[in-house]
Amino acid sequence: MTKIARAVERKDAEIAGLLHPLVKEWFFSKFKEFSITQRYGVSAIWERKNILISAPTGGTKTLTAFLSIINYLVMLAEKGELENKVYAVYTSPLKALSNDIHKNLEEPLNEITALAEKKGIKLQKIRVGLRTGDTTPAERVKMAKNPPHILITTPESLAIVLTTKNFIESFKAVEFCIVDEIHALSNKRGVYLSISLERLNEVSKIWPVKIGLSATIAPLEEVAKFLVGIEEFRDVEIAEVPLSKKIDLAVLTPVKNIIDDENLTSEMYVLLDKLIQEHKTTLVFTNTRAGTERVVTHLKDKFPAIYGDDNIAAHHSSLSKTIRFDIEERLREGKIKVVVCSTSLELGIDIGYIDLVLMLGSPKASSRALQRIGRAGHKLHETAKGRFIVADRDDLVECAVIQKEVIERKIDKITFPKNCLDVLAQQIYGMAIYKQWNINEIFALIKKSYCYSTLSKNDFYDIISYLAGEYALEKSNVYGKIWYDEETKMIGKKGKLARVIYMTNIGTIPEEAYITVKLAPAGEKIGAIDEGFLERMKRGDVFVLGGSKYEYGYVKGMNLYVKTAIHRNPTIPSWFSEMLPLSFDSANEINKFRGMINKRMFEKKSKAGIIEFIKNYLYVEDSSAEAIYNYFYEQFKFSEIPTPEKIIIEKFKGEKNYLLVSSMYGRRVNDAISRALGYLMAQAGGRDIEIGINDNGFYFAGEKLQIEKALKFLTDENLEEVLTEAIERTDILARRFRHCAARSLMILRNYKGHDKSVGKQQMKSHFLLNAVRKISKNFPILKEARREVLEDLMDIENAKRVIKRINDKMIKIEIIEVKLPSPFTLNLLIQGHTDLIRIEDKQAFLKRMHELHIKLIEGRKSV
Amino acid sequence: MNPKYIFISKALYIPEIKTLAIGDLHLGYEFLINNADIQIPYSEFENMKDELKKIIEDIKKRKRDIKTVVFLGDIKHFFAYKKIERDLFVELIDEIGKTADNPELIVIKGNHEKRMDFAYQKLLDFYVKGSFAFIHGDVMHKEILSPEIEIVVMGHLHPAIALKDSQKIKSEKYKCFLAGKYLGKEFIILPSFGEINTGTSLNEHLSDDRCFIPPAQLLNFEVHAIGEDNQYYNFGKLGVLEKLHDNIKK
Fold first, then answer.
1. What's this model's pTM, rounded to 2 decimal places?
2. CB within 10 Å: which end of chain B, N or C, has fewer?
C-alpha cells in the first residue's frame, strides 16, 4: 500500500544546481536565497517524488510547487522540445485563488522569457491556461485546440475537462499535478476531487507527480494518502515546514465585568475602533455573514466621521464576485483600512499587508485560528499579530483555550468524508460519458481513491442500478443515465443530452436560496435568510435578524413576512445553518481545563493561586484570568463544575420541564448523543421531545423525560442504530436528502438549458423523501443522506467514544435538581430549541388532545 | 350532528338530495412542486382518485345512491390555463362516472377559475337543490338567502386546526369540517381534498379578508376534526378552541 516518508531539507547549492541558467538567474534576481519550504520541496519535485507540503500561510508554497515545473518547461522550450500537451495541472478549490495564481505564475514566466530575449536565447512559448466555471465557450474551444502547458483549474472544472473529448487527448501524458489548499478539502468537494485525480491518473499514460499544498494541518499522514490515493507503489513524502513567523496573541474582553456590564456591545465597538486606529490595516473575522454585516454597519453608524465606504468593507461568500474581487484588490494595494469578513478570507489568496487580525468570537478550532492569524504579517519572518475579542464568558474560556492550543501548536484533526454515494453517482456518470467501461475497471479505479478505499461492492452496484434506472423510476419520467450490460459487464452513457446534463449540473455545493424577509403587511425589506433556516421554522417562531427579533408570519414566493417580536424570546437560534461547530479536540481541551479548575476549587486552593494558575496555563492577562475564575467559582458554588470524568444533568422546571446536560464535546458530538437519548426517551414516554444543542451541552424539554433509562440503554454498539431511527423523520434528513439528490443528479438544477432557480426547486423535502422511501428504504441516495447526517453533520465516531466511556463508568453522570439553570447551562437555555423529536403519531395525539379538550370544556362548564 | 348530512372522509354526502359534495382540489398544485427537473414521482392525483373511489364505494355500501356530485370550486390551482389540470379533471370525472353510475356533475367556480368553463364543464357561481345551496365561499351570492334554503355548503377556507400539547412542544395540524349558523342559515365548510395542501389552521390564523363570513361569526362554528381512523372529533366552537389554546399557552 501507499508508503509515507518524511522529506529532507536540501542544501541551497544542490537546488541551485538543478536550475537552468535562465531560471537560476531570474530566481536570484528576485530572492536572496531559497526559503525553507523551497529547500524541502523543489528538489523532491524535480526528482518526481509525490510530496505533501504543509507550511504556514505567507510561506512560499506556490513558487515551491511551480519552480521545478517552470525549470523543466524552460529546458524543453530552449531545446524546442515543448509538445502540444498539458504538462502540469494545478487545481484549487478557490476560484479567486486560481486567478491569483495565474498572475503569479505568468509573471515569472514572462520575466524569464524577457531575460532570454535579452540574452538572445530562443525559447518556445510556455502557455498557461485558466479553466474555471467563468471561462467562456470561445476560450474553451481555443484551449482544446491549443492546450496550455500548465492548466489552472478548480475541482469541478477538472472533472469537466476529463469528460471533454477534444481536450482529453492533451491529458495523455500529464507529468505534474498540484493540489492546492488541501486543508479546505475535507468535505465533499475533496471527495469529488479524489475521484477526478484517479480519472486523471487513468487518462494519463505516465504518472502525474502529485504535489499537495496545505496550511498547517493534521493528521498529515492521512492528508498525504488523500493526495496520492491508495495503491501499491504509490509513495509520498511529507514536508512539514516549521513556522518561523512569531505569533503575538491575546484574548481581550471589551469590558471589565463581562457578565454585568450592559454596555458590552457598545464597548466592543469602542475597543474595535481603538485597535483598528492603532494599526495600518486590520482584518476582522466574525464567523457569520450576518455578523459581518452587523459589524460594518455599527462601525459606520457609531463613528461616521471615521468609517465610510472608502475605508471599510464587508467580505463574505454571498457577495457578488465583482465586489469581492474589488475588495481583495483594494486590500492588496493597501487602499483600505479594515475589512470585516465571515470566514471567507481565511484561505489562500494573497491579501497584502495586514498588521492585525481580530477574531470576534471563538474561531472554534485551533487550525482555523492559526489560519486566520497567519493572514497577518506580510512575509514569513514577520510577527503575526492576532487578538481574540470575546462576547461572553463561554466565549472567553473557549478563546483562551484555543489560544493555548495555537501557542502550543496543538492542531485539531481533520477527516475526509468516506464512501459518499452521491458524489460517486455523479462521477460514474461523467466517466460513462467519456467512454465505455468495463464495470470492474470502474470499481478498481474508484477504490484507489482514498475516500473510497473501503467502498463495498454492494454500495457500488446499488449506484450502478440507480444510474441504470433499475429502481423502477422510469414510470415516473426518471430515465436511466447509463446502460449496463450484465453479459459483457460494460457500461456506457444513455441519451443524447447526457453530456449537457452532466456539465450543467456538476458540482458538490448545494445551492442555497436566499429568502427576503419583509415586515408584514407593508413589505418593508429587513434582510435575507437562507432557505435552510426558513425550513427550520414554523409560523409563530421567533428569530433574530440584524440584531432585532421577528416573528414568522407567512411565506409568499421567495419572501418571508414577519412582525416584530420585541417581548418574546427567540424560539430558534438564528445562526444555525451558518455556525461553525467547536472542534472535538478543542472541546476536550476545555473539558480538561474545567477538570483542573474543579480540582483546585475542590481542594480549596486560594483564589490568588488559582488565578495565577489560569494566567500561566492559558497565557491570559489578570483580568481575563479573574473573569474565568469568577465564572467557574459561580458554577462551583451553584452546584458543580462538569469535568472530563463527570457530566452534570440539571433538572429544571421553568416554562417547561427541562433537562440541561453539560457535555463539553462540541456540537457535532452533542448532536449525535442528544438525538439518540432524546429519541429513546420520546419512545419510552410516547411523547415528543424538544431538544436544544450547542457546543457545551444540550437540553431536553417535554412531558415525560426518563433520562436514566435512556442512558442505561444506549451503548457505543447500538448508537448508530438508534440514531438512524432517530433522524428518520427529521427535517434535517429531508434537507440533506435533497442536497444528495441534487448531487446525484436526481434533481437537475439545469435541464435542457433552463436554469431552475432554487426557488423553483424549493419543493417540500418531505414529499421527495416519502416518494423515495416508497421505492426502497435503502435507496442508495437516501442511504447517503443518512451517512451525511451521521458522519459529516454529526460526529458519530467520537460520540461512540464518549458513550463507551459512559458505559465503562469512566464518565460519571450526576443528575441534580435545580431551581434555576446553573451559570454554565444558562446560554443553552437562552439560545432556544434546535429540533423536535417526533414520536407520538398524529392520530394518537389527536385522540389525546381531544380527551383533554373535552375535560377542559366540561371543567369550564362546571365552574 | 345534523342527520341531514354525513361526513365521509373529507367529503359531504346529503341523503335527502342524493348529493356528494367535494371541496377544493387544486389539481395543479403537485406540479408546482413536481417540476420537470425534479425527477421523483408524486402520487397526489392517484391518491385523490383512490380516495374518491373509496368514498363512492362507502356510500354504495350504505345502500345510498349518488345522483349528483358537486365540486365546490378551486378545481385547478394555476390561475392560468394548464392542459395538465384539464386532463386530470377529465380523468377524475371519468372515474366518477364509472364508479357512481354517471351522476349529474356540478362544478362551482372558485377564485382559481378565471373563466366560465373548464374541461368542457360550465362553471356555476352557485347551485341550489332542495333546501341546500352550494357555493365556493370566497364571495356571497344573495340567492342563497332565499327562504327555502336551510343549509349552505362551501369550501374555499381549507379549514384545519392546530393542536399543541401542554409544553407547547408538539404542534400538529388536522383538517376539519366547520359547521355553524350565519344569516339564519346553517353553513358547512368542507376541508380541501388533497394531501399536499394541508389546510389553514384557523385557530391560529383567522384573517378577515378571505371569506365573506366575518371571523367573529366563524369563531362560533363547531370544529369536526378528521381522524385517520375515519372518526370525527368534535372540539366544540372554534372560538373556545382558540381561547383554550391561549390558556394552555399561559
1. 0.81
2. C
